[in-house]
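user: Please review this fold.
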Amino acid sequence: MSGGPVRRPVPVTQVVLKAIEARRFQDQPQAPVRLRVDHNSHISLVQADADDRLRVEFQFTTSYGALGVVKTEGTVFVQDPGAKEAAAHWQEQRNLPQEMAQQVHSAILSMCVTEAVGLAKTVRLPPPIPLPQVRVGGQDATAQAPTDSPEIG
């Protein structure tokens, strides 16, 4: 068999949003412009709730540069036998073990980007992710994601 370490999933049991903010800073530009959309996931606090339960506080920001921003804050709950060790590691190093960090940030990204799609629409910002585009006519009617940044205008 292989000699590498056995990887086990880190079960994220729940993601709870506590605060949501969407702001548009300026009106629609007259001419279409390319827009860069950036996402940032930040863990602000890690605490062991029990020997095998971890509480991870986070902020997630989707930035549209000078056009606007969508911010969410919340808590991720993780069920893991190494919860106390992960919390101690956080206190010393200000980071989580790699596999746990990957799964926690993936859960944050999944929840917050999904939420940001609706919020962005509400304040007239473009979706924070490229949406599939259907092509009909002389080409296959298959969905394809655009390769460029979103245009607004």
